[in-house]
TrEMBL record:
Residues 20-302 form the Ppx/GppA phosphatase N-terminal domain. It comes from the Bacteria. This is Ppx/GppA family phosphatase. InterPro entries: ATPase_NBD, GppA/Ppx_hydrolase, Ppx_GppA_N.
């Protein structure tokens, strides 16, 4: 059985193909990430930009070709924050129906709730962590939304690196006033999450998705992006703060001087860094936390697990 998971968020579209062999063992065939910025302008206009839809179509067409080549039998594609907010999302769905029907008749993207997104991310992100380190709090920091999830509760919040950049931190690099306005908004969203997710009960905080994995690569002084060194890395808050402060002070072009930096993330990671800084303040205050574990596994792995057990 070969299955594929596709996650289309505000900033990127990602693919995971996994094969289950006859002996039950799992092989990761490919894991791909393409920055398409589907959520470009959605926070302001409430609609998808046609150019953003076309960028996404091209990326998904490439993924579909890879799925056909690998003999994928089942596929699930989920769409998250940007698609929940866009009034013309049917244009996007039509594109996904046309392409995914080639893999599994009737397949198309489905919009999932923030809560389901959170639970799928939790399932994937904690798969390789020693259960003795629980209780886990998983944070999935995306382009348009950020999910906080524990076994005791989950909350999706309307903050992400693209949304914060477009709404508050528009100057390159952001001004002190822009950053402080963003911080106030971020603190309010974290407080919303804390009403449902008991941070004080968490023992281990797990960060997943591109902002966290890139920060881990930079914190480790990697010359290039290396998933094997990023996955399950543990980054002390003190070191993380050094990295986030440096990134926010730089322009997007200066951030590209770092080898692990993806070109499609350079202009928004300053906002993502600000979100992470406010999280560290909250987690240290509420739970005495001093570090993040960074997971390369996330919602894609949660989706694949569901496909293989359904």
């Amino acid at each position: 059985m070969t299955v594929a998971a596709v996650d289309c968020g505000t900033n990127s579209i990602r693919l995971l193909i996994t094969r289950r062999d006859d002996d039950g063992s799992l092989t990761e065939v490919t894991r791909e990430n393409t920055i398409v910025r589907l959520g470009q302008g959605v926070d302001e206009t409430g609609r998808f930009n046609p150019e953003a839809i076309e960028r996404t179509r091209q990326a998904l067409a490439g993924y579909t070709e890879r799925m056909r080549a690998e003999g994928v039998q089942r596929v699930r594609m989920v769409a998250t924050s940007a698609t929940r907010d866009a009034s013309n999302r049917e244009d996007f769905f039509a594109v996904t129906r046309e392409l995914l029907d080639q893999i599994q008749p009737g397949a198309q993207a489905e919009v999932i709730s923030g809560e389901e997104e959170a639970h799928l991310s939790f399932r994937g992100a904690t798969a390789d962590i020693d259960p003795a380190r629980g209780r886990f709090c998983v944070i999935d920091l995306g382009g348009g939304s950020t999910e906080f999830v524990m076994n005791q509760g989950a909350r999706s919040t309307q903050m992400g690196c693209v949304r914060i950049t477009e709404r508050f931190m528009r100057t390159d690099p952001p001004t002190a006033q822009e950053t402080e306005s963003a911080r106030a908004y971020i603190r309010d969203r974290i407080a919303e999450a804390a009403e449902v997710v008991p941070f004080a009960q968490a023992r281990t905080f797990v960060g997943c998705a591109g902002t966290f994995t890139t920060l881990s690569a930079l914190a480790q002084n990697l010359d290039s992006y290396d998933p094997t060194r990023i996955h399950m890395s543990e980054i002390p808050f003190e070191r993380m703060r050094e990295v986030t402060a440096d990134l926010r002070a730089r322009t997007a072009s200066q951030r590209l001087e770092y080898g692990p930096m993806h070109p499609g993330r350079a202009d928004v990671i300053g906002s993502g860094s600000t979100v992470v800084e406010e999280m560290m303040d909250a987690f240290a205050r509420e739970a005495g936390a001093t570090s993040f574990i960074i997971s390369e596994k996330d919602i894609l792995d949660g989706i694949v697990s569901g496909l293989l057990t359904a």
